[in-house]
Amino acid sequence: MIPSISYTLSSKNFSEALLEAATDYGFFYLTDAPIDWKLVDEAWKSSDNFFLHASQEEKLVSRDREGHTGYTAFQEEKLDPNNTTISQGDFKESFYIAQLSPKPRQTLPPTLEKDHKSLEQLFEACRLICGTILEAFAQSIDLDDQQYFSSKHTAFHDRLRLIHYPPTDVGQEGSSIRAGAHTDYGSITLLFQHQVSGLQVWRENEGKWLDVAPQPHAIVVNVADALEFWTSGVMQSVQHRVVMPRTDDEAVSRFSIAYFCQPDDDAILAPKPLQEHLVKIQRKRSQEQYERELKRKGISSPSARLTGGQHLQSRLKASYT
Ligand SMILES: O=C(O)CCC(=O)C(=O)O
Ligand SMILES: [Fe+2]
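A: This is the predicted complex of the input protein with 2-oxoglutaric acid.
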């Protein structure tokens, strides 16, 4: 069972719980987060209006592939590009939003522009939660500088991503998938799921996929690649995917919203020295396994010196057709 962690824990207990979740599952549910859930409800309505009612022409307004903002079409992305048993791109469409305040970096299509204020507030709430989590992670591994991670995040590369998986018949598993197995490229991801299940996380020790069902007023948080590099694999950026509908309940439109917290272009993703107790955790995962995982993520070796910008660009390039 994916652990649940309350935002209201004392800072010491919070950071300890975070480290435990990050080293075991790489995923946790965050409860009692400082977020106005009305904003999330508003965002579901925005998503519904946009994906189900906007014209194709409107969807493409302000799309900027280079700047990584705007619309991505059905099957345009393949999150698991090396998987040859799945021939098609992912069964989803999405819309990427960059920080909207103080000055928006993209023109939103009219359907989303009318909800500008609530989307902007949701973005800011997510940004602040990620900042707190990054500081707690720094505390959890006893870094002298508690802002070591958070200071590398100006939110320039952060994206709020509205995602829609169109209705699909039950039993299509095999040649297609809603979102292929992947790890996230940034530091941490916050995920909101609207009622419909399908998200699964890989459990290496058990050799199986585990469902991460939507829970009311809980945000799914996962560790992404940058934190894994900084901690030499102590914190795990774990593979996850969204499977095709298994029941009639899942055969409907599935909506989710991800907030990708991603390091700045010049952030060096070099491993930090580890305290003794962390080295012990690290050794539970074989070096061979860690290196294999890094290769999947496009990294040649654990000592490769990448920047946040380089890693992000190379991963994005690999997953878009
Ligand atoms: O839609 C979901 O539940 C997961 C999406 C995801 O993992 C991603 O976009 O990186
Ligand atoms: Fe993901």
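DSSP finds nine helices and twelve strands in the chain. The longest helix spans residues 116-140.
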